[in-house]
Amino acid sequence: MTSMAPVQRLKLLRELERKVLWLSAWTIHHANHIRPNRDGLKVGGHQASCASLATVMTALYFAVLKPEDRVAVKPHASPVFHAIQYLFGHQTQGKLECFRGLGGAQSYPSRTKDVDDVDFSTGSVGLGVAMTLFSSIVQDYVRLKKLAPAERRPGRMVALVGDAELDEGNVFEALLEGWKHDVRNLWWVIDYNRQSLDGVVNDRLFGRIGEMFELVGWRVVTLKYGKLLETAFAQPDGEQLRQWIDACPNSLYSALVFKGGAGWREALTRDLNQYPGIRRILEQHDDQALHRLMTNLAGHDMQAVLDAFESIDDDRPTCFIAYTIKGQGLPFAGHKDNHSGLMTLDQMAGFRKGMDIEDGQEWQKFAGLTATSTELEAFIAEAPFNAEGRRRTEAPAVAIPPALPKPNDKKASTQEGFGKILNAIAAKDSELARRIVTTSPDVSVSTNLGAWINRRGLFGHTEAEDVFRELKVVSAQLWRKTPRGQHVELGIAENNLFIQLAALGLSHQLFDTRLLPVGTLYDPFIARGLDALNYACYQDARFMVVATPSGITLAPEGGAHQSIHTPLIGIGQPGLLSYEPAFVDELAVLMRFGLEHMQQPKGSSIYLRLSTRSLPQPERTLSAEQQADIVSGGYWYAEPGSDADVAIVALGAVTPEAIAAHESIVRDFAGAGLLVLTSPDRLHGDWLAAQRQRGRTAGIVDRQPSPIESLLAPLSRDARLVTVLDGHPLALSWLGSVRGHRVVPLGIESFGQSGDIPDLYRTYRLDAAAIVDAVARAIS
Ligand SMILES: Cc1ncc(C[n+]2csc(CCOP(=O)(O)OP(=O)(O)O)c2C)c(N)n1
Ligand SMILES: [Mg+2]
Description:
Blueprint: H1 6-34, H2 47-64, E1 70-72, H3 78-88, H4 93-97, H5 127-144, E2 157-162, H6 169-180, E3 186-192, H7 203-215, E4 219-223, H8 227-233, H9 238-247, H10 250-259, H11 261-272, H12 276-284, H13 287-294, H14 302-310, E5 318-323, H15 345-354, H16 373-381, E6 411-412, H17 414-427, H18 431-435, E7 436-441, H19 450-456, E8 458-459, H20 467-470, E9 481-482, E10 487-490, H21 494-504, H22 507-510, E11 516-521, H23 530-538, E12 544-547, H24 566-572, E13 576-579, H25 584-597, E14 605-609, E15 615-616, H26 624-632, E16 634-638, E17 644-651, H27 655-665, E18 673-677, H28 680-697, H29 707-712, E19 715-725, H30 730-733, H31 736-739, E20 742-746, H32 757-763, H33 768-779
Parallel strand pairs: 1-2, 2-3, 3-5, 4-5, 7-10, 7-11, 8-9, 11-12, 12-14, 13-14, 17-18, 17-19, 19-20
Antiparallel strand pairs: 6-15, 16-18
Helix pairs in contact: 1-2, 1-3, 2-3, 2-14, 5-6, 5-21, 11-13, 17-19, 21-23, 24-28, 27-33
């Protein structure tokens, strides 16, 4: 590669750019027009959005990127990505033919579903962009601590960003956080095609974008005009042409791009005819040439793109604003409605002809190009990006000790327990302690991470002393930043928390070293970052999220901070296993399990819903069997008699009320049981899995009951269940379907209000009396 003459390299890259444009458009066309359509539904794909990034992506993947770089591709440029991987030999024709079909190349690049080396999944606009920023923090975190293999070079975290993505607030939340953390090795390439989904992006907004990046310390490189236009500007009166384009509103420019040569001629004649130099330019260009000139933006000028990328040789974060045309080279270029536009059969036939591709040669890698296959193959084989083979790493798991230290307080909340368990881990120098990294959006102290941070310190690129400590102002909290620190403190932005966790939770695959990320936030604010949480899980990132306080049990803090439906999120969110322990000994078991489960190939992330309510702790030493029950989702706190007619089922902080209610009903219902659950999510999932398994093995042997089926087995057929949790009752009401028991579900269905626990539990019918009432109702 290095030996190749620049002219030759440019020539080959231009050829590949044509091919990438062709393949992306053809992949979409094939899925929509050639592959049989069985359900009449539009398949879709974004030919125009692909076209605007063809030059930039060709330059990056075939010339600029190195194996250590990691890229988030704008979601709707997925076919461009797959086309490039196809040329590299990492993607198959079969999967391209099946684009957007089952098992085919994905609509939007997916780490877990695509086979061709996707670094970051994208889809929900804005999130992939932020993901690169938080990954750069992780890269520095592992590098400064020397956790990654010594030979690993720092890579650039690259986002290919649609201009309309910059309307997503999470991008700016991330930018600010990145500035605070002094992020490095970050490239954001903005595909400035001036169009979004519905129309043309706002001129006023974009006038400010560059300044915003500069404000937070980024270098801004604008790729505005290509070499043809620059040459025209250098001619007499050329400056008038530059000023005209500079002042041209986005909507007019886009419309003229669509109209083509005649449109440009008419507009320029109207506005600039008084300049002899402009008249000369108009005379020298026929319509086709004039169109080529006027659309010669730098984002489509291979040399300009290469120059811009290759001019950067430091690690300062850089924003490239690449002026492009949505649909460049396609019949609907520039049209404001082109976002989901697909070429018609006729348009595709014309486009194919223009590409010199014969009927039947559509998937051939080099059909229609002028360079020989040998030249192109050799060039592709030498792309620096692939120099080290497979880029995804798989760092080994960290061994978790058989038991975590367990605090022995007689009364405690699960939140305190969490803080103490982490503190005890922090106190020892172990591999486990070294690998845990915590993060929180300005609620570290109030979620009990304080002791951990005191011992392990805050993470920062450079040493920063705790000023309060230096000035001898007494504080329980040490706030010293060092590269050795193991807590990444974030500002209040739950989106950032979840994307930071996503990045930390992929360290074993992105940066070849295992981290055990633990993030804390208030339970209600999971909803604030929910799309980012979903995004993290979608990528199969592995972390533990600890949400506390939860429910109405935080009592005096009132309605705004009460979480009601988070237990349903815990059940409904794939890739996230949720637990809500009542007692600290359960929590210790679950944290241990979670840290291990997070690292299993078939594991997942973990969500612990905790509480600030201090509960009397049971005096017990959990046997191995009890520990296994806690992990599988629940256990009989009070065993039911055989053929019992009633049982109370409790989850989390309201367990003492269930215990009290149980004590009072056993007088009347001797065999009544009390089932304490730790995870409706786990029980529900295993119940469904057992049924599916049975479906598959029907008639053979496997009648293995799932844990909840075994738990409910001792009850009589028509026993009644009263379920209770500090959250939406639906989280437990499904238990009635397991064995056909009737359920009276208690829980929270409306916004709460402030109060103390006795008042609130009475008002929302979670107290012992309400549970006893519900039992009476159930029985009658
Ligand atoms: C969070 C989210 N909201 C809405 C969408 C639907 N959507 C997909 S692309 C798009 C517009 C993208 O415009 P831009 O980023 O400028 O990309 P272009 O197609 O112009 O390249 C929208 C609204 C989405 N993918 N994600
Ligand atoms: Mg756009």
